[in-house]
Design a protein that fits this description.
This is RRM domain-containing protein. InterPro entries: Nucleotide-bd_a/b_plait_sf, RBD_domain_sf, RRM_dom, SLIRP/GR-RBP-like, SLIRP_RRM. One of its GO terms (molecular function) is RNA binding. It holds the Pfam family RRM_1. Keywords: RNA-binding. By secondary structure, this protein is of the alpha+beta class. It is 17% helix and 27% strand. A five-stranded antiparallel beta sheet has the order 2-3-1-5-4. The longest helix has 9 residues.
């Protein structure tokens, strides 16, 4: 039997109302397939999230199911949902103030 795939099939979601949290986003997208991760970044100064997130499904089917639904409505707002082209890679992050050579 083949080992389970470590590949994650990702969506990029924007126009998220500030009243929603990562837990609600994960629960909403779980109706389309198993969610492996939901990354909702927060603004350090305001404490509010930035209005976008990445949702990673364990299967391509979950990703395709989510992409087929339109519109995605949460708390009266229409979310913008698209396939994430460049997968999020976990690891060290560079500061936005970092200098590049």
């Amino acid at each position: 039997m083949a080992a389970p795939s470590k590949k994650v099939f990702e969506l990029f979601v924007s126009k998220i109302p500030w009243t929603l949290a990562g837990k609600e986003m994960r629960e909403y997208f779980a109706q389309f397939g198993p969610v492996k991760k939901c990354l909702l970044p927060f603004h350090k100064e305001t404490g509010f999230h930035k209005g976008f997130c990445w949702v990673g499904f364990t299967t391509e089917e979950g990703l395709n199911n989510a992409l087929q639904k339109d519109p995605h409505m949460l708390e009266g707002a229409k979310l913008q949902v698209q396939k994430h082209i460049r997968p999020f890679v976990e690891g060290p992050r560079l500061s936005k103030d970092a200098e590049y050579d």
